[in-house]
Amino acid sequence: MFRRHLDYYVRYLDHDIPAGVVVFLVAVPLCLGIAVASGAPPFSGVIAGIIGGLVVSLVSGSQLSVSGPAAGLTVIVAAAVEKLGFDAMLLAVALSGLLQVVMGFLRAGVIGAFFPSAVIKGMLAAIGLILIMKQLPHAVGYDADAEADLSFLEDDSHTRLSFLWDAFRSFSTGAVIVSLVSLAIMLLWDTPYIKKHRYLSIAPGPLVAVLFGIAYNVVAQTLFPSLAIAPQHLVNLPAIFGPIDFAREFNFPDFARLIDVQIYITAATLALVGSLETLLSLEAVDKLDPLKRIAPTNQELKAQGVGNFLSGMLGGLPITAVIVRSSASIDAGAHTKVASFVHGVLLLLSAMFLASVLNMIPLACLAAVLLLTGYKLAKPKLFVQQYEKGFNQFAPFAVTIGAILSTDLLKGMAIGMAVGLFFVLRANYHSAFTLTRDGRNYLLRLQKDVSFLNKAQLRNYLENVEENSYLVIDGTRAGFIDQDIMETIQDFIKAASDYNIRVELKDMRGLEPVNGLVPAE
């Protein structure tokens, strides 16, 4: 069996190795940018990318998903780093991995189905808006923000807009040039012309933007020093050359914080949101797979759990399956998980031997990458699409966004879920029964499962049945009928003779008709 599996992976090496190179080129700016956006050392993003490629890909049952640090978790990580400290955040990441492994064994891979799509889309849109607000200061060369607060209000009672105003008053011309040109490059690389070009399409847009940022600053330092970007506005990786230096840079969790309740709250939040993002990405990847393979969700949770545990133990950010890198892998022709593994190997080699090159990347360039990522999560088109689906879909979507922006991710999701549940119950309440009338004949049909929540509506319909009439109550379409509903119908039957109403029951479990009729006693 091992030989058969090996032959399968060897067969597609000519596709998977080039695809792995492409994913590596996409992953480098994202790993660094997400770490900076999280208020964490850039090296932690690289560690997470390496583990996502080398470890998660081996344990995962998905052939095409690529794992690494995710923009969707930046707001949680930023808050944890600010409130708990980086080493304590690592402990929360490791514990979240253990929780995900347990979730996998408990077969919790179906949890994504229990969250309304409107709430999940609202969560992702809110994360996109927060990313945009967080990265605008870096895009103009103002790096004073600690990347911590997730809400619209800052801790000092100033609004996020007032902070942005301070940033724009203190902008750096060089940083603005780099961020604007980087955005233009990435937008250009998303056009059909570049995507169809034989050679230009090989290089991912974010990588081209990063190369421009490095080249611009090298030229500016020589020819236009006033337009150059100051060293404090560049990526700051440790001085690494070789495996020994690399191993020395590992950070380890602060196990003394195991008694801190906030650690467990953060771990549970990371496990839940990370699992949701992973399952959503996995579903999207399965749809993109040309061979239409279906990845086992429970095994994926275990794989992500192992990855997050190791990442937290070695100083890395939390990991999820990520759709951007996965789709890049598929577009590049990947057939198996070897592509993800190759990208992990290349990340490892670059961290060991190219740290000095990575330290030349301007933070404004990474901010541009994340600004575009935030825009893609919160596109205006998404808001229009949700609005067109009706108020039942738009309200939970909008409330989730507003709640996350004004509180935090966990509270915002809870509020969004409550609103989503309200609309589900409301829809169930209004569609549980239909009452049809033909002269003195009435048909009351139970359309689906009915519970005590529908009791008031049932009473209202029964009160509309006039005296001296004939009523058929049809439960054929109902899979479940609550006992409260049965008692309400039974009470009506007992009182029906006072109004000369004859009642016939059809497939009403628990009520016994006499010759098809239940006369009032």
What are its keywords?
four-stranded mixed beta sheet, elongated, mainly alpha, disordered C terminus
- Continuous helix count: 22
Q: Write down the Rg.
A: 29 Å
Count of individual domains = 2
What does the overall shape look like?
Answer: elongated
- Arithmetic mean pLDDT: 84
Task: Report the uncertain regions.
Answer: 146-150, 152-157, 513-521
Termini separation comes to: 73 Å
- H/E order of the elements? HHHEHHHHHHHHHHEHHHHHHHEEHEHE
Spatial ordering of strands, largest sheet? 3-4-5-6
Sequence-ordered SSE layout with sheet pairings:
Blueprint: H1 2-11, H2 13-37, H3 42-59, E1 66-69, H4 74-84, H5 86-105, H6 117-139, H7 160-169, H8 173-189, H9 192-196, H10 205-223, H11 243-248, H12 261-288, H13 297-314, E2 319-322, H14 323-331, H15 338-353, H16 355-358, H17 363-377, H18 380-388, H19 391-406, H20 409-431, E3 433-438, E4 441-446, H21 455-463, E5 470-474, H22 483-496, E6 502-506
Parallel strand pairs: 4-5, 5-6
Antiparallel strand pairs: 1-2, 3-4
Helix pairs in contact: 2-3, 2-10, 2-14, 2-15, 2-17, 3-13, 3-15, 4-5, 4-12, 5-12, 5-13, 6-7, 6-17, 6-19, 6-20, 8-10, 8-17, 10-17, 12-13, 12-14, 18-19, 19-20, 21-22
